[in-house]
C-alpha cells in the first residue's frame, strides 16, 4: 500500500532553502520563529490561522458527516485571545491537534503531550496574512524524521491505552476524516444503527466496528463477527450505498497476534459468503495520518474498498 510506505529521507529538509534564506536575512524574531541548527529546533508560534485546523474540519472534510465532529475527541483544545489553548484536564494525548496544525505551532513535550509553542509572537505587528505573504514557501512542520515518527507513534499509542468507547469512537472518526475518508460516527449507545461508524461513499460505503483498548487490546473474533453483522445489516436495510464485495472494517488498538484464528475466520467468511472483512489497528491509522499530513499522501475509499485481513 503506497500510503503506508511513504518516508521522509532523514536528511530531507521540510523548509525550502529559499524560505530559509529569506527568513534568516530578515531576522527570525520578527516572525515569531526560531530556527536552530537542525530541524528539531524550528519553532513557529500559533498564527491564529483562519482555518483553525487544530480545532475544526473543513467543509470538504465534513461533506458526508451528519453529526458535527470536532477535531479533538475530548474538546480539550480551544481558541482564546490570539492563540489555541489546551486544557490538560481533558486532553487524552492523541496528538491530532499537533499533527493537523500545518505550521508546526504545536509540539510534543517530553511526555508526548501537545504543547503550543510559546514564542511571544507579536500579533499586533504581524497578522496571519502578513506572515503568509512573507513566508509563501512555508511548509514547516514540527515532527521530522522517520525515526522520531516511530517513537512518536509508539508514545501516542501509549497515551491511548486507558481510553474507552466515548473517546475512542470520536477519535477514530477524527483520524479517518483527517486522512481523507469521509466518516460519520454513531453516538455511543445509539442502538438504531448497528455499526459504530461508516465511511460514506456514493458507491462503496464501509461499515466500521470500533474496539477501544479497554474493551479488548487486540482485534478479536467477536470484532470480526460484529463487522460481518454490520455488513449484512447495511446490505439488508439498505442504509447506505454499498456493494456486496465492499469491505466491512474492524478497527482496534492492536492487530491480533500474528496469524491467529481471527485471520482464519476472515478467510472462512470470504470463502463462504464472498464478504471482505478488513482490519486496521491504531498504529496503521497513525502512519496513514502522518503520511497524509507530512507527505500529502491522500487516501480514498478505492484504496481500501476490497480490503480483506490486515491493512
Ligand atoms: S495551532 Fe496551528 S492550526 Fe491551530 S490556530 Fe494556531 S496556527 Fe492554526
Ligand atoms: S492531543 Fe488530542 S485530546 Fe489533546 S488537545 Fe490535541 S486533539 Fe485534543
Helix and strand arrangement:
Blueprint: H1 2-5, H2 17-26, E1 33-34, E2 43-44, E3 77-80, E4 83-86, H3 96-100, E5 106-108, E6 114-116, H4 128-134, H5 146-159, H6 165-179, E7 183-185, E8 197-199, E9 206-210, H7 221-237, E10 248-252, H8 261-273, E11 277-281, H9 282-295, H10 301-304, E12 309-310
Parallel strand pairs: 9-10, 10-11, 11-12
Antiparallel strand pairs: 1-2, 3-4, 5-6, 7-8, 8-9
This protein binds iron/sulfur cluster (2 copies).
One iron/sulfur cluster binds next to loops.
Q: List the strand order in the largest sheet.
A: 7-8-9-10-11-12
- Main sheet record: 6 strands, mixed
Q: H/E order of the elements?
A: HHEEEEHEEHHHEEEHEHEHHE
What overall form do the CA principal axes indicate? Answer: globular
- Note poorly predicted spans: 6-41, 136-144
Helical coverage, percent range: 25-40%
Provide the β-strand percentage band: 5-15%
> Are any ligands bound, and if so which?
iron/sulfur cluster
Structural class: alpha/beta
How many angstroms does the end-to-end distance come to? 8 Å
Describe the structure.
The protein is α/β, with parallel strands linked by helices and 311 residues long. Helices cover 33% and strands 13% of the residues. The protein has 10 helices and 12 strands. The chain has helices spanning 2-5, 17-26, 96-100, 128-134, 146-159, 165-179, 221-237, 261-273, 282-295, 301-304, and strands at 33-34, 43-44, 77-80, 83-86, 106-108, 114-116, 183-185, 197-199, 206-210, 248-252, 277-281, 309-310. It has a 6-stranded mixed β-sheet with strand order 7-8-9-10-11-12, with helices on both faces. Helix 5 (146-159) crosses helix 9 and helix 6 packs parallel to helix 9. The chain is globular. The structure holds iron/sulfur cluster (2 copies). One iron/sulfur cluster is lined by residues 46-49, 52-54, 84, 101, 103, 105-106.
Amino acid at each position: 500500500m503506497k500510503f503506508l510506505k511513504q518516508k521522509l529521507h532523514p536528511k530531507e529538509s521540510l523548509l525550502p532553502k529559499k524560505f530559509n534564506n529569506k527568513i534568516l536575512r530578515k531576522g527570525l524574531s520578527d516572525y515569531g520563529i526560531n530556527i536552530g541548527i537542525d530541524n528539531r529546533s524550528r519553532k513557529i508560534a500559533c498564527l491564529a490561522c483562519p482555518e483553525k485546523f487544530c480545532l475544526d474540519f473543513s467543509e470538504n472534510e465534513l461533506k458526508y458527516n451528519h453529526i458535527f465532529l470536532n477535531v479533538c475527541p475530548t474538546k480539550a483544545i480551544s481558541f482564546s485571545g490570539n492563540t489555541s489553548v489546551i486544557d490538560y484536564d481533558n486532553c487524552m494525548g492523541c496528538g491530532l491537534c499537533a499533527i493537523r496544525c500545518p505550521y508546526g505551532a504545536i509540539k510534543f513535550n517530553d511526555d508526548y503531550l501537545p504543547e503550543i509553542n510559546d514564542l511571544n509572537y507579536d500579533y499586533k505587528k504581524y497578522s496571519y496574512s502578513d506572515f503568509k505573504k512573507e513566508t509563501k514557501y512555508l511548509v514547516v512542520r514540527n515532527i521530522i524524521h522517520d525515526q522520531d515518527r516511530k517513537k512518536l507513534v509508539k508514545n501516542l499509542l501509549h497515551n491511548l491505552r486507558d481510553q474507552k468507547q466515548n473517546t475512542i469512537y470520536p477519535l477514530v472518526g477524527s483520524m479517518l476524516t483527517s486522512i481523507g475518508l469521509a466518516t460519520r460516527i454513531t453516538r455511543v449507545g445509539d442502538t438504531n444503527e448497528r455499526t459504530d461508524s461508516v465511511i460514506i461513499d456514493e458507491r462503496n460505503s464501509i461499515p466500521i466496528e470500533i474496539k477501544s483498548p479497554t474493551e479488548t487490546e487486540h482485534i478479536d473474533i467477536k470484532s470480526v463477527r460484529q463487522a460481518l453483522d454490520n455488513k449484512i445489516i447495511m446490505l439488508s436495510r439498505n442504509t447506505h450505498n454499498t456493494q456486496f464485495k465492499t469491505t466491512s472494517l474492524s478497527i482496534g488498538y492492536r492487530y491480533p497476534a500474528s496469524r491467529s484464528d481471527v485471520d482464519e475466520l476472515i478467510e472462512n467468511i470470504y470463502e463462504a459468503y464472498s464478504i471482505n472483512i478488513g482490519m486496521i489497528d491504531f498504529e496503521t491509522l497513525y502512519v496513514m495520518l502522518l503520511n497524509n499530513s507530512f507527505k500529502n499522501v491522500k487516501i480514498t475509499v478505492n484504496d481500501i474498498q476490497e480490503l480483506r485481513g490486515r491493512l
